[in-house]
Amino acid sequence: MSDLVTIDINSAGVADVRLNRADKYNALSPEMFDAITEAGESLLDNASVRAVVLSGNGRGFCAGLDFSGFRGMAGDSDGAPITTRRESTGKTPGNPSQQPGMVWKEVPVPVIAAIHGVAYGGGFQVAMGADIRIAAPDARLSVMEIKWGLIPDCSITQTLRDLVRIDIAKELTYTGRVITGQEAADLGVVTQVSDSPLEAALEMAATIADKSPNAIRLGKKLFHETWRGSEEDGLKLEESLQTQLIGSANQIEAVQSNFEDRPPNYADPEL
Residue 267 has what pLDDT? Predict the structure, then answer.
């Protein structure tokens, strides 16, 4: 695992994932793209993980694409390439630039992004891959690709569409304007604001980790697979997943612990 992204999993099963290129505002170099995807993929088959908190070390969440890539396009021979040639593992859909956002949709437990400082361009899109986003009210977010004559292509078509109206997505993309965390919440881009987004995200993750892990995982699967599907498919999957849960060991434990007024003792789900 690269030290560009760190992971600490506590005893409750909360994975604290930190983008760790603080001296560059966690900007997305080819190596950083790869490290984020690899971090997410390392959690895919870990039955002990109950929730994930994704944040950035230093003064911001992620400043977007590393500017050295643009210097290379402008004729600077020392500029690094924008794209990476990471071989796909087949675990995460998309190309290497899209996977750092998509991987959090593939992680089978809730992912909460804690946003402070800046989330620009590709960094904005990484955050959009999370299930829930908590931002500082003065955080700054932007679909900034238009500044460089580009379109957003780091999985935004699969994430932002679930959060805002299409006209809002277009306006943010066409203008590239910077919005605050508070405006982002007003628009639906982020879930809520907090003066301490990382603390709030860890608190929410702890609450989720205290619930039946089977129900949490199937709840994410339910919405992930049906939100834009047909009425018939959605209703069928509700029934199918609920059938899996009713009478299962962790579902019985949820009932018993509530009636006995004690903390639940859930087993890790079978993968």
Answer: 96
Domain 212-259 part of CATH 1.10.12.10: yes
Rounded CA-CA distance 15/6 in Å is 10
Backbone angles phi, psi at 261, to 5 degrees: 55, 55
Q: Render pLDDT for 164-201 as a digit per residue (tens, 0 to 9).
A: 999 999 999 999 999 999 999 999 999 999 999 999 99
Residue 140 three-state SS: strand
Per-domain boundaries in the chain: 5-208, 212-259
Choosing among 3.90.226.10, 3.40.50.300, 1.10.10.10, 3.40.50.12280, the CATH entry for 5-208 is 3.90.226.10
Q: What's the Rg (C-alpha) of the chain?
A: 19
Taking only the tens place, the pLDDT of each residue in 203-229 is: 999 999 999 999 999 999 999 999 988
List the chain residues with pLDDT less than 50: 79-80, 84
Q: Are 29 and 80 in contact (CB under 8 A)?
A: yes
Q: 79-88: long-range contacts at Cβ-Cβ below 8 A with a sequence spacing of 24 or more?
A: 80/29, 80/30, 81/30, 82/30, 83/30, 84/30, 84/31, 84/33, 84/34, 85/30, 86/30, 86/33, 86/34, 86/37
Each residue of 252-265: pLDDT tens digit? 999 999 999 999 99
CA 21 – CA 66 distance, rounded (Å):
11
